[in-house]
């Protein structure tokens, strides 16, 4: 039985109150964690404040950059430990986490170390009536103590996506991972100590969002809050951040659309769409839950996507043949299955899936669902309108480019979209009209960490990535010198 503790002021701390974590793959109790008390949340914020005023706030930019590289090297040195922890927490295949979660988790520290090192300050020569002029230039300073609230679908990757630039800009952090996935976030505390990160710079609090998360976001010692998760929780965080006029960066839900034109490269479109719909068992905020396919290729596309979905191998994370894992929890599986039922109740044609797969005795207690494809529903159907966050999609035919754009944009969300076409003019024309924070053309989840990432409409506020992260995690002071 693993034991997990919070990490405050450079040390692991106990509360004497424990929560349980169950294996997504087997349903068995695999871990207990110390639930952080509200008093310990206060201690974590105070430790972060002290570190900001103390050693962390006094080191040079180059020293910060060197430490961030050491953190990345520390993750890479303990690659197998992080891999095991991430897969135990999430149940995802090691083949996925080995190539995405852990390498990207380490890379985030190096990328933002390089970004801050090469960030240029602005300077302007300003004319004055007396003819001597003035010089205006900017100074970049840390925002302060940043509350980082991470999701359970990509725990290490999305946590370091925020912690990396926060530390690069000189901030200190208090991190609350999801109560479902806490192993890699707490393990990172050991790496922080080994890398020479001063005490109090990186703190971790554990527990339910309604209690521990609420204690964190309402703590007046926080200067900014960054969050990835549901729109509903994002609304609560935005409200809490408004008290004290604190900045918030919110990457929220999505109901992402993919548009497939008849002139697409069918092989590329099928391969990319299989990933965008089913990767990580559909538990990806940028996943494609709505597909619009030009009518002349509709039947072929549906048939080939069906064949691809039915070829997935569900199994244990350490099985090299496994390429789809379980859902994160029993509660989430019930939610996803309720949408599977709603689709049938509303008249969907179930192309494939729609239920619980037969698993081996060892895995039968896990939170498994079948990869699922529907057709035949109107746009008003529940599974077409609401984010499901499971391995499923609805496919609808379209006849004109204008119709496809209108259908894709007809949602309160605006996180991601994808367009599949070999017509270069159409690709640029359609992508520019997508009401989303990112649009992929003939690809999916192809990310350059220097580019802005975030959502439109109810999919969030703010942009992170490259120098856009620096804008959120730092404050600019303009200095005006009369010459």
Per-chain topology:
Layout: E1 2-4, E2 6-8, E3 11-13, E4 18-22, E5 29-34, H1 38-53, H2 55-58, H3 61-77, H4 79-90, H5 94-99, H6 101-117, E6 123-126, E7 134-142, E8 145-149, H7 155-168, E9 172-176, H8 183-194, E10 202-204, H9 209-217, E11 224-228, H10 231-242, E12 247-251, E13 256-260, H11 266-278, E14 288-294, H12 298-310, H13 330-345, E15 349-352, E16 372-375, H14 382-385, E17 392-398, H15 401-409, E18 413-414, E19 416-420, H16 424-431, E20 438-441, E21 456-457, E22 460-461, H17 466-473, E23 474-482
Parallel strand pairs: 1-5, 8-9, 8-11, 9-10, 11-12, 13-14, 13-19, 14-17, 16-17, 19-20
Antiparallel strand pairs: 2-3, 4-5, 6-7, 7-23, 12-22, 15-16, 18-21
Helix pairs in contact: 1-9, 3-6, 3-8, 6-7, 11-12
Provide a quick synopsis of the model:
This protein is α/β, with parallel strands linked by helices.
Key terms:
alpha/beta; Aldehyde Dehydrogenase, Chain A, domain 1; 2 domains; single chain
